[in-house]
Amino acid sequence: MTCLTKKHILEIENLSVSFLQYDKGMRQRSLQVITNLSVSVHEGEIVAVVGASGSGKSLLAHAVLGLLPANADVSGTLRFEGKPLTAASIAALRGKGITLVPQSIAYLDPLLKAGKAVRKNKRDAGARKKQRELFAHFQLDPATENLYPFELSGGMARRVLLAAALMDDPRLIIADEPTPGLDLELAKKALADFRAFADQGNGVLLITHDIELALSVADRIAVFYAGTTVEEAPVIDFEAETTLRHPYTKALWRALPENGFAALPGNQPYVKAMPKGCPFGPRCSLFSPSCEGEIPLKTIRCGTVRCIKATGSVEV
Protein backbone atom coordinates (compact mmCIF):
# COMPACT_ATOMS: atom_id res chain seq x y z
CA MET A 1 0.00 0.00 0.00
CA THR A 2 1.40 3.38 -1.06
CA CYS A 3 0.50 6.29 1.19
CA LEU A 4 0.15 9.89 0.02
CA THR A 5 3.54 11.62 -0.39
CA LYS A 6 2.57 14.89 -2.07
CA LYS A 7 3.58 18.24 -0.60
CA HIS A 8 1.47 19.67 2.19
CA ILE A 9 -0.49 22.85 1.56
CA LEU A 10 -2.09 23.03 5.00
CA GLU A 11 -0.89 21.29 8.17
CA ILE A 12 -2.73 21.53 11.47
CA GLU A 13 -1.32 19.72 14.49
CA ASN A 14 -2.79 19.60 17.99
CA LEU A 15 -5.02 22.62 17.50
CA SER A 16 -6.85 23.65 20.67
CA VAL A 17 -9.35 26.49 20.98
CA SER A 18 -10.93 27.81 24.15
CA PHE A 19 -13.11 30.82 24.91
CA LEU A 20 -12.89 32.98 28.00
CA GLN A 21 -16.42 33.47 29.31
CA TYR A 22 -18.18 34.94 32.30
CA ASP A 23 -19.75 32.27 34.48
CA LYS A 24 -21.48 33.68 37.55
CA GLY A 25 -21.28 37.37 38.31
CA MET A 26 -17.80 38.60 37.34
CA ARG A 27 -16.19 35.17 37.62
CA GLN A 28 -14.54 33.97 34.41
CA ARG A 29 -13.94 30.47 33.10
CA SER A 30 -12.19 29.02 30.05
CA LEU A 31 -14.41 26.84 27.87
CA GLN A 32 -12.42 24.32 25.80
CA VAL A 33 -14.23 23.64 22.50
CA ILE A 34 -11.45 22.10 20.36
CA THR A 35 -8.76 19.82 21.79
CA ASN A 36 -5.67 18.45 20.02
CA LEU A 37 -7.32 18.55 16.60
CA SER A 38 -5.11 17.53 13.67
CA VAL A 39 -5.82 17.56 9.93
CA SER A 40 -3.86 18.22 6.73
CA VAL A 41 -4.40 18.99 3.05
CA HIS A 42 -1.92 18.03 0.32
CA GLU A 43 -1.44 19.35 -3.21
CA GLY A 44 -4.11 18.08 -5.57
CA GLU A 45 -6.34 16.95 -2.72
CA ILE A 46 -9.83 17.50 -1.37
CA VAL A 47 -10.09 16.65 2.31
CA ALA A 48 -13.65 16.49 3.60
CA VAL A 49 -14.25 17.21 7.27
CA VAL A 50 -17.35 15.42 8.54
CA GLY A 51 -19.02 15.15 11.92
CA ALA A 52 -22.12 16.11 13.86
CA SER A 53 -23.10 19.71 14.57
CA GLY A 54 -20.96 21.08 17.37
CA SER A 55 -17.96 18.86 16.61
CA GLY A 56 -15.73 21.83 15.74
CA LYS A 57 -15.87 21.88 11.93
CA SER A 58 -16.66 25.57 11.39
CA LEU A 59 -14.46 26.64 14.31
CA LEU A 60 -11.56 24.96 12.51
CA ALA A 61 -12.17 27.11 9.43
CA HIS A 62 -12.37 30.29 11.49
CA ALA A 63 -9.19 29.40 13.40
CA VAL A 64 -7.21 28.89 10.19
CA LEU A 65 -8.41 32.22 8.81
CA GLY A 66 -7.99 34.17 12.04
CA LEU A 67 -11.70 34.93 12.29
CA LEU A 68 -12.28 33.89 15.89
CA PRO A 69 -13.47 36.54 18.38
CA ALA A 70 -11.12 38.35 20.75
CA ASN A 71 -11.96 36.09 23.70
CA ALA A 72 -10.61 33.01 21.88
CA ASP A 73 -7.33 31.40 22.89
CA VAL A 74 -5.70 29.32 20.15
CA SER A 75 -2.74 26.95 20.50
CA GLY A 76 -1.15 24.31 18.33
CA THR A 77 0.81 24.31 15.08
CA LEU A 78 -0.62 25.66 11.82
CA ARG A 79 1.47 25.74 8.65
CA PHE A 80 0.65 26.90 5.13
CA GLU A 81 2.99 25.61 2.42
CA GLY A 82 5.53 24.73 5.10
CA LYS A 83 5.54 28.13 6.82
CA PRO A 84 3.95 28.87 10.21
CA LEU A 85 0.63 30.69 10.10
CA THR A 86 0.91 33.81 12.23
CA ALA A 87 -1.57 36.63 12.75
CA ALA A 88 0.32 38.72 10.18
CA SER A 89 0.62 35.98 7.56
CA ILE A 90 -3.04 34.97 7.98
CA ALA A 91 -4.11 38.57 7.38
CA ALA A 92 -1.99 38.68 4.20
CA LEU A 93 -3.27 35.33 2.92
CA ARG A 94 -6.95 35.72 3.78
CA GLY A 95 -8.99 36.09 0.60
CA LYS A 96 -5.90 35.53 -1.56
CA GLY A 97 -3.78 32.47 -0.83
CA ILE A 98 -6.54 31.04 1.36
CA THR A 99 -10.19 31.79 0.64
CA LEU A 100 -13.35 30.87 2.52
CA VAL A 101 -16.69 29.82 1.11
CA PRO A 102 -18.66 30.59 4.28
CA GLN A 103 -21.59 28.64 5.63
CA SER A 104 -23.81 31.70 5.88
CA ILE A 105 -24.73 34.02 3.03
CA ALA A 106 -24.78 36.79 5.66
CA TYR A 107 -21.04 37.11 4.95
CA LEU A 108 -21.95 39.17 1.87
CA ASP A 109 -21.54 42.87 2.59
CA PRO A 110 -25.11 44.31 2.51
CA LEU A 111 -23.76 47.64 1.21
CA LEU A 112 -21.94 46.19 -1.82
CA LYS A 113 -23.48 45.07 -5.06
CA ALA A 114 -22.68 41.48 -6.01
CA GLY A 115 -20.23 42.28 -8.79
CA LYS A 116 -18.23 44.71 -6.70
CA ALA A 117 -18.19 42.25 -3.78
CA VAL A 118 -16.73 39.50 -5.96
CA ARG A 119 -14.18 41.88 -7.51
CA LYS A 120 -13.28 43.11 -3.99
CA ASN A 121 -13.71 46.69 -5.22
CA LYS A 122 -11.20 46.24 -8.07
CA ARG A 123 -12.14 48.41 -11.05
CA ASP A 124 -9.70 47.30 -13.73
CA ALA A 125 -10.96 45.66 -16.90
CA GLY A 126 -9.25 42.35 -16.11
CA ALA A 127 -11.03 41.98 -12.77
CA ARG A 128 -14.38 42.89 -14.29
CA LYS A 129 -13.85 40.40 -17.12
CA LYS A 130 -13.00 37.55 -14.74
CA GLN A 131 -15.95 38.35 -12.46
CA ARG A 132 -18.33 38.21 -15.42
CA GLU A 133 -16.82 34.94 -16.61
CA LEU A 134 -17.35 33.45 -13.14
CA PHE A 135 -20.95 34.69 -13.04
CA ALA A 136 -21.58 33.07 -16.41
CA HIS A 137 -19.94 29.87 -15.21
CA PHE A 138 -22.27 29.72 -12.21
CA GLN A 139 -25.29 30.56 -14.36
CA LEU A 140 -25.83 33.99 -12.86
CA ASP A 141 -27.54 36.50 -15.12
CA PRO A 142 -25.28 39.46 -16.06
CA ALA A 143 -27.70 41.78 -14.27
CA THR A 144 -26.83 40.02 -11.00
CA GLU A 145 -23.67 42.09 -10.64
CA ASN A 146 -25.81 45.17 -9.97
CA LEU A 147 -27.94 43.55 -7.25
CA TYR A 148 -27.48 43.99 -3.51
CA PRO A 149 -27.46 40.87 -1.28
CA PHE A 150 -31.06 41.44 -0.13
CA GLU A 151 -32.13 41.22 -3.78
CA LEU A 152 -30.55 37.79 -4.28
CA SER A 153 -32.24 34.45 -3.69
CA GLY A 154 -30.46 32.02 -1.38
CA GLY A 155 -29.16 30.00 -4.32
CA MET A 156 -27.94 33.11 -6.13
CA ALA A 157 -26.14 34.37 -3.02
CA ARG A 158 -24.49 30.96 -2.60
CA ARG A 159 -23.20 31.11 -6.18
CA VAL A 160 -21.91 34.65 -5.66
CA LEU A 161 -19.88 33.34 -2.70
CA LEU A 162 -18.48 30.53 -4.87
CA ALA A 163 -17.47 33.06 -7.53
CA ALA A 164 -15.80 35.25 -4.90
CA ALA A 165 -13.73 32.30 -3.67
CA LEU A 166 -12.29 31.67 -7.13
CA MET A 167 -11.73 35.31 -8.06
CA ASP A 168 -8.12 35.69 -6.88
CA ASP A 169 -6.70 32.26 -7.83
CA PRO A 170 -6.16 30.98 -4.27
CA ARG A 171 -3.95 28.05 -3.29
CA LEU A 172 -6.41 26.68 -0.72
CA ILE A 173 -10.20 26.90 -0.54
CA ILE A 174 -11.95 26.26 2.77
CA ALA A 175 -15.56 25.48 1.86
CA ASP A 176 -17.90 25.45 4.88
CA GLU A 177 -21.16 23.74 3.86
CA PRO A 178 -21.00 25.29 0.36
CA THR A 179 -24.02 23.65 -1.32
CA PRO A 180 -27.19 24.34 0.79
CA GLY A 181 -29.68 26.36 -1.24
CA LEU A 182 -28.37 25.01 -4.56
CA ASP A 183 -30.41 22.65 -6.69
CA LEU A 184 -28.83 19.26 -7.42
CA GLU A 185 -27.37 20.29 -10.78
CA LEU A 186 -25.69 23.40 -9.40
CA ALA A 187 -24.49 21.56 -6.30
CA LYS A 188 -22.82 18.94 -8.50
CA LYS A 189 -21.30 21.74 -10.59
CA ALA A 190 -19.86 23.40 -7.49
CA LEU A 191 -18.31 20.12 -6.39
CA ALA A 192 -16.92 19.56 -9.88
CA ASP A 193 -15.34 23.02 -9.69
CA PHE A 194 -13.67 22.12 -6.39
CA ARG A 195 -12.45 18.87 -7.94
CA ALA A 196 -11.01 20.71 -10.95
CA PHE A 197 -9.40 23.29 -8.65
CA ALA A 198 -7.69 20.55 -6.62
CA ASP A 199 -6.65 18.65 -9.75
CA GLN A 200 -4.65 21.73 -10.78
CA GLY A 201 -2.39 21.11 -7.78
CA ASN A 202 -4.31 23.18 -5.23
CA GLY A 203 -6.12 22.09 -2.07
CA VAL A 204 -9.67 22.10 -0.75
CA LEU A 205 -10.84 21.65 2.83
CA LEU A 206 -14.52 20.76 2.43
CA ILE A 207 -16.54 21.03 5.65
CA THR A 208 -19.82 19.14 5.52
CA HIS A 209 -22.23 17.08 7.60
CA ASP A 210 -23.17 15.11 4.45
CA ILE A 211 -20.96 12.01 4.33
CA GLU A 212 -22.38 10.85 1.01
CA LEU A 213 -21.49 14.23 -0.52
CA ALA A 214 -17.99 13.97 0.91
CA LEU A 215 -17.47 10.45 -0.42
CA SER A 216 -18.49 11.55 -3.92
CA VAL A 217 -15.72 14.14 -4.33
CA ALA A 218 -13.03 13.87 -1.63
CA ASP A 219 -9.68 12.08 -1.57
CA ARG A 220 -9.59 11.75 2.21
CA ILE A 221 -12.12 12.07 5.01
CA ALA A 222 -11.35 13.64 8.39
CA VAL A 223 -13.88 12.63 11.03
CA PHE A 224 -14.47 15.04 13.93
CA TYR A 225 -16.16 14.22 17.22
CA ALA A 226 -16.64 16.52 20.21
CA GLY A 227 -13.93 18.96 19.15
CA THR A 228 -11.17 16.61 18.05
CA THR A 229 -10.07 14.44 15.13
CA VAL A 230 -10.90 10.78 15.70
CA GLU A 231 -9.88 9.52 12.26
CA GLU A 232 -8.40 10.56 8.92
CA ALA A 233 -8.83 7.94 6.18
CA PRO A 234 -8.52 7.64 2.40
CA VAL A 235 -11.97 7.73 0.83
CA ILE A 236 -11.48 4.19 -0.49
CA ASP A 237 -11.52 2.92 3.11
CA PHE A 238 -15.21 3.85 3.33
CA GLU A 239 -16.07 1.09 0.86
CA ALA A 240 -16.32 -1.32 3.82
CA GLU A 241 -16.74 -0.99 7.57
CA THR A 242 -13.83 -3.37 8.16
CA THR A 243 -11.25 -1.02 6.63
CA LEU A 244 -12.21 1.87 8.93
CA ARG A 245 -10.38 2.42 12.21
CA HIS A 246 -12.46 4.25 14.80
CA PRO A 247 -15.74 2.98 16.32
CA TYR A 248 -17.44 6.33 15.65
CA THR A 249 -16.42 6.28 11.98
CA LYS A 250 -17.79 2.75 11.70
CA ALA A 251 -21.05 3.93 13.28
CA LEU A 252 -21.28 6.72 10.68
CA TRP A 253 -20.71 4.12 7.95
CA ARG A 254 -23.54 1.95 9.33
CA ALA A 255 -25.82 5.00 9.41
CA LEU A 256 -25.59 5.50 5.64
CA PRO A 257 -28.79 4.45 3.82
CA GLU A 258 -26.99 1.86 1.71
CA ASN A 259 -25.44 0.30 4.83
CA GLY A 260 -28.58 -0.20 6.90
CA PHE A 261 -29.43 3.31 8.12
CA ALA A 262 -28.60 2.22 11.68
CA ALA A 263 -28.86 5.01 14.25
CA LEU A 264 -26.20 5.29 16.94
CA PRO A 265 -27.73 5.50 20.46
CA GLY A 266 -26.75 8.43 22.65
CA ASN A 267 -25.50 11.94 21.92
CA GLN A 268 -22.23 13.75 21.40
CA PRO A 269 -21.13 15.08 24.81
CA TYR A 270 -21.70 18.71 25.67
CA VAL A 271 -18.52 20.76 25.87
CA LYS A 272 -19.11 21.54 29.58
CA ALA A 273 -19.55 17.85 30.45
CA MET A 274 -16.80 16.02 28.58
CA PRO A 275 -15.96 12.48 29.75
CA LYS A 276 -12.46 11.47 30.79
CA GLY A 277 -10.16 10.26 28.02
CA CYS A 278 -11.95 9.27 24.83
CA PRO A 279 -14.93 11.59 24.17
CA PHE A 280 -16.71 8.72 22.38
CA GLY A 281 -16.27 6.39 25.35
CA PRO A 282 -19.84 6.62 26.79
CA ARG A 283 -21.28 5.47 23.43
CA CYS A 284 -18.62 2.91 22.51
CA SER A 285 -19.14 -0.86 22.80
CA LEU A 286 -15.36 -1.31 23.13
CA PHE A 287 -15.04 1.03 26.10
CA SER A 288 -12.86 -0.06 29.01
CA PRO A 289 -11.22 1.80 31.95
CA SER A 290 -8.06 2.20 29.88
CA CYS A 291 -10.03 4.49 27.52
CA GLU A 292 -10.24 7.10 30.30
CA GLY A 293 -6.53 7.92 29.95
CA GLU A 294 -4.66 9.85 27.28
CA ILE A 295 -5.67 8.86 23.74
CA PRO A 296 -2.86 9.69 21.28
CA LEU A 297 -3.32 9.97 17.52
CA LYS A 298 -1.60 7.07 15.75
CA THR A 299 -1.00 6.07 12.14
CA ILE A 300 -2.57 2.89 10.77
CA ARG A 301 -2.68 1.87 7.09
CA CYS A 302 -2.22 5.33 5.49
CA GLY A 303 -4.65 6.88 7.93
CA THR A 304 -4.69 8.20 11.48
CA VAL A 305 -6.94 7.30 14.41
CA ARG A 306 -7.43 8.40 18.00
CA CYS A 307 -8.35 5.07 19.63
CA ILE A 308 -6.25 2.76 21.80
CA LYS A 309 -8.26 -0.26 20.59
CA ALA A 310 -7.56 0.35 16.88
CA THR A 311 -5.08 -2.08 15.29
CA GLY A 312 -3.18 -2.26 12.01
CA SER A 313 -4.99 -5.36 10.87
CA VAL A 314 -8.22 -5.24 8.86
CA GLU A 315 -11.10 -6.67 10.86
CA VAL A 316 -13.17 -9.45 9.32
Structural class determined from secondary elements: alpha/beta
Reading off the top of the CATH hierarchy, the class is best stated as Alpha Beta
Succession of helices and strands: EEEHEEHEHHHEHEHEEHEE
Quickly count the domains: 1
Radius of gyration: 20 Å
CATH superfamily name? P-loop containing nucleotide triphosphate hydrolases
- Report the CATH architecture: 3-Layer(aba) Sandwich
Strand content: 25-35%
Distance between the termini: 19 Å
Helix content: 25-40%
Q: What best-fitting shape do the alpha-carbon axes yield?
A: globular
Strand order of the largest sheet: 6-7-8-3-9-10-12-11
Uncertain segments of ≥5 residues (pLDDT<50)?
Answer: none
- The number of helical runs is 8
Overall mean pLDDT: 93
Assembly annotation: single chain
Explain the overall architecture.
The chain is α/β, with parallel strands linked by helices. It has one domain (8-108, 152-305): Rossmann fold (3-Layer(aba) Sandwich), CATH 3.40.50. The chain is 25% helix and 25% strand. It contains eight helices and twelve strands. It has helices spanning 57-64, 87-93, 114-119, 125-137, 154-166, 184-199, 211-217, 247-255; strands at 8-22, 28-42, 45-50, 72-80, 83-84, 98-101, 172-176, 203-207, 220-225, 228-234, 298-300, 303-305. The strands form two sheets. It has an eight-stranded mixed sheet with strand order 6-7-8-3-9-10-12-11, sandwiched between helices. A four-stranded antiparallel sheet has the order 2-1-4-5, covered by helices on one side. Strand 7, helix 6 (184-199) and strand 8 form a beta-alpha-beta unit. The longest helix has 16 residues, at 184-199. The two termini are 19 Å apart. The mean pLDDT is 93.
